[in-house]
Write a structure and sequence with these properties.
The protein is elongated and about 50 Å long. It has a single domain, classed as Yope Regulator, Chain: A, CATH 3.30.1460. A hairpin with a 5-residue loop joins strand 1 and strand 2. The chain has a six-stranded antiparallel sheet. It contains three helices and six strands. By secondary structure, the chain is an alpha+beta fold. Helix 1 crosses helix 3.
């Protein structure tokens, strides 16, 4: 990564941090990624330069993890995935069970802090809402194994 690319991604991450700190406590990881929680949903934001003038922010929220591999959950996720406007809902298989994520990537250059904060919070609040709507999830529950 060139110095210019590094500066561009760092600037975008700083803007995202400023935008989110209006609503949430945000941590900067050693690699520059931003991590935070919205309720019980952990999230991370990374910046990537795809090409000249095209740097995107990638937001990933872990809606739930280590859930039992049950058909009702897969059906609920598939139905909800088609109804969402902000983000791609996915199910992954891990040794502990099913993990549900919401991912959203977008070019963020040119957005002011207020607009960026609104857009990010739309995605993050959707992830929190999804968490309460999943079969077998109750408030404060993290997954089948409690962690």
């Amino acid at each position: 990564m060139s110095t210019a690319e590094a500066a561009e991604t760092a600037e975008l991450l700083t803007q995202a941090k400023d935008a989110l700190e209006r609503y949430l406590e945000v941590h900067v990881d050693d690699d520059g990624a931003l991590t935070f929680r919205h309720g019980d949903v952990p999230c991370v934001i990374q910046a990537t330069r795809l090409g000249e003038g095209l740097t995107v922010l990638s937001l990933t929220c872990v809606v739930a993890w280590d859930l039992p591999d049950e058909p009702a959950l897969s059906v609920a996720v598939a139905e909800r995935a088609g109804a969402g406007l902000f983000g791609t809902l996915g199910v992954g298989h891990s040794r502990g069970g099913l993990d549900v994520t919401l991912r959203y990537a977008f070019p963020a250059a040119g957005l002011d802090v207020a607009a960026l904060g609104t857009l990010l919070m739309l995605v993050v609040s959707t992830a929190s809402q999804l968490r309460t709507e999943l079969p077998g999830m109750s408030p404060g529950e993290t997954g089948a194994n409690g962690g």
